[in-house]
Design goal:
CATH class of the largest domain: Alpha Beta
Number of helices: 11
Distance between the termini: 49 Å
Order of helices and strands: EHEHEHEHEHHEHHEEEHHEH
CATH architecture of the largest domain: 3-Layer(aba) Sandwich
CATH topology of the largest domain: Rossmann fold
InterPro entries: KR_dom (IPR057326), NAD(P)-bd_dom_sf (IPR036291), Peroxisomal_Beta-Oxidation (IPR051687), Sc_DH/Rdtase_CS (IPR020904), SDR_fam (IPR002347)
Strand content: 15-25%
Bound molecules: nicotinamide-adenine-dinucleotide
CATH superfamily of the largest domain: NAD(P)-binding Rossmann-like Domain
Family: Belongs to the short-chain dehydrogenases/reductases (SDR) family.
Structural class: alpha/beta
Protein name: SDR family NAD(P)-dependent oxidoreductase
Radius of gyration: 21 Å
Organism: Spongiibacter thalassae
Keywords: Oxidoreductase
């Protein structure tokens, strides 16, 4: 098998000063990419700032003979996001890859979530990912090539207590992937989303009982709940070799899987008048029946699928 390389390509990895992002930056650089190592350098809640996190990863890359430059802007600020992409253009002349990885965490039960928590989580994860990717999209369209990866979470797609705002922002990555995937397709831009799970400093914020569960499962997984077991899928997804688009993948402890969003065939109500509430109640089992499940690839595609079922009846 020929090795997957990134020579002459430029990658931006946000939040690459530690945790998962650091491993992506190191692996991309080791495979020839010039990397913009972005990190705000604050704490896990998203407060504070500093240059040492991004600088230390850049130093690691340079020491290994790779190419990298640090950027300390916040993804949560649209001007900062523009500056992150501008760093790639100024220093390396192009941008081929964006990995939206930067993130903070503030856990609280729904009735204890503050406005500040909600604003902070949505600004960093949801707006930040959109700002940075929007800034890169323009250049990717012009060059007819790009790879964008959003970082979602099992908390957003499957659910987790104490993470309503975080989960909502992370579920938003699915929406971003769908639209970037559709708009980018004609321009050679592929966009996907990752649901990672690995021990990083984010674990500090977890409920002790959940942390204990994690420790037990980690032993079952051969202690593979670490960032480096996530990296291979990430690097493949942003490579020229990967043709996947508009898809969601999960990477946990060396297990890689695709996440699918399906639509049951459902129940077709009367055409001549809207169904009554009682009709819906009577057919709720049909609505839930998963014998036939479609995977619409766009809004229009869902309409086409319904039309197909209507014609078949
Ligand atoms: N670790 C997990 O199990 C897990 C699970 C699901 C999703 N994720 C997601 O993976 C990503 C990486 O998380 P991690 O576990 O490596 O945590 P981490 O805290 O080690 O890394 C996140 C990095 O983002 C940086 N950052 C935070 N806010 C920023 C901002 N506004 N601008 C630029 N940089 C900023 C931080 O300084 C930090 O270095 C996050 O998006 C996180 O939500 C992680």
């Amino acid at each position: 098998m020929t090795s997957i390389r990134f020579d002459q390509q430029v990658a931006v990895v946000t939040g690459a000063g530690g945790g998962l992002g650091r491993t992506y930056a190191l692996e991309l650089a080791a495979r020839g990419a010039a990397v913009v190592v972005n990190d705000l350098g604050g704490n896990i809640s998203g407060d504070g700032a500093g240059t040492s996190m991004a600088d230390s990863v850049v130093a690691e890359i340079l020491a290994a003979g790779g190419k990298a430059v640090a950027n300390y802007d916040s993804v949560a600020d649209s001007k900062g996001a523009d500056a992150i992409i501008q760093t790639a253009l100024d220093k390396f002349g192009r941008v081929d890859i964006v990995i939206n990885n930067a993130g903070n965490l503030r856990n609280a039960y729904i009735d204890k979530l503050s406005d500040d928590d909600i604003d902070s989580l949505h600004s960093v994860h949801l707006k930040g990912s959109l700002y940075v990717s929007r800034a890169a999209f323009h250049h990717m369209k012009q060059q007819g090539y790009g790879r964008i990866l959003f970082t979602s979470s099992a908390a957003g797609v499957f659910g987790n207590p104490e993470q309503a705002a975080y989960a909502a922002a992370k579920a938003g990555m699915v929406g971003l992937t769908n639209v970037f995937g559709i708009e980018g397709e004609a321009h050679g831009i592929k966009t996907n989303t990752l649901l990672p799970m690995a021990a990083s400093r984010m674990a500090e914020k977890m409920d002790p009982a959940q942390l204990q569960q994690f420790a037990e499962l980690n032993a079952t997984f051969g202690n593979a709940l670490t960032p480096d077991y996530i990296t291979p899928l990430v690097v493949y997804l942003v490579s020229r070799e990967c043709e996947a688009n508009k898809s969601i993948y999960s990477a946990v402890a060396g297990r890689f899987a695709k996440v699918v969003i399906g639509l049951t065939k459902g129940w077709l109500g009367p055409r001549d008048a809207p169904a009554s509430v009682e009709d819906v109640a009577a057919h709720f089992a049909d609505i839930e029946d998963q014998t036939v499940v479609d995977e619409p690839c766009s809004l229009v595609d869902e309409l086409q699928i319904i039309a197909k079922h209507v014609r078949a009846e």
